[in-house]
What we know:
Low-confidence stretches: none
Strand content: 15-25%
Order of helices and strands: EHEHEHEHEHEHEHHEHEHEHHEHH
Amino acid sequence: MVAVLIIEDDEAKLRRIRKVVHDVGENRVVIAEAGNCIDAIRWCQFNHCDILILDLQIPLRDDELPDKSGGEAFLQKLVRADSKCCTPSQVVGLTAFEQLREEFRSHFEREGWVIARYEHSSRDWEETVSSAVRRELLVASGSPRRGLLLALHGIRTTAEWHRTIADIAQSENWICPIQKMWYGQFSIFQFLSPFARSAKVYWFRSRYTEILTAYEGRFVAECLPSVVAHSFGTLILGNALLKYKDIRVDSVILCGSILPRDFPWDVLIENGQVQRVLHDVGKNDHWSAICSLIIPGTGSSGRNGFSRSSPYMIQEYHNLSHNDFFDGRQMQKHWFSFLNADHLKTGAGNTARVDWSYGDHPYVTPFTSLAVFILLVSVLVSCAYVCGKVFTIIVEVSVVGMFEAIRTLFQ
Length: 411
């Protein structure tokens, strides 16, 4: 059974939402309802729901008028560490106001949630709700799935391609828990920091363990998770495999890679940590080449390919740039054909030594990275100084003008 919580204070909208859920789930769903923020939080503290359908404009308390901050207040309470609430697998936000949808869009995308515009005459929102219910019914059905697919995004992105690949994964009978694989927008300052980069490697290891535990036993056969990684996600995956020997994956798909060209995929495959690799190289990917000169431990593999080879690694070259790999049809035809293809397991349990890769330019990047950091800080300080000066001049001119006006008035 799939548990659905609908938070809606308008009875007419509630009936329509309830009907859509019932039409898809029939007798396989259990629906609970709440009309305001406080009642919804109390329900979530003692119950679990798989799908949360939330009107973004709800009353904060009973007998109050709808508040456009009601949905935001509920979500903040829901995800707080001390809330004692179980976080649902999926959240679907609904609102009749386009401005409110735009305001919440980045937050929902950041969490891997979905937001839709509610219109009485439109069925687009109905399809959004139906899709969420169908996806959760597949997960809850207990029927074996092909496998588990993890998606790792790059920096400074809302990773919209996560939603695309999750929808394709559903149609291909894969589980792709994108809501657990968002690590937030990574700033350029964080990217330059070795401590921040290492923190994301540890984050991946904890998520890897958590997800494997949560989805154990839902596949066609006992299998390892597969990973699709882009940009900084490739660096997270690669460093996690080198640092933690207990992390093992089946198929790896890389695009926009910033891993060093001499990254030891061949040894990782020989040792059984990785079964096989598909590397999509973008010949117009200038970012990976620039990154290899600035960030220690990175390389231009996304543009020039890996220099080390293996029978279980495929490298394909495309006339694409850093972010051109996410067309839905191309994902299904190219990536899922690779994922679905039968393959032999490589040597599991070998103990060949894995040398750490220090990047394409190990003697250059420490200095260029520091220089770029100092340059960025200098630019920010200069901008702050100029803005402060301009503000001071504006204030002084305004004050002088005001006193001149008052003096003229009393003359």
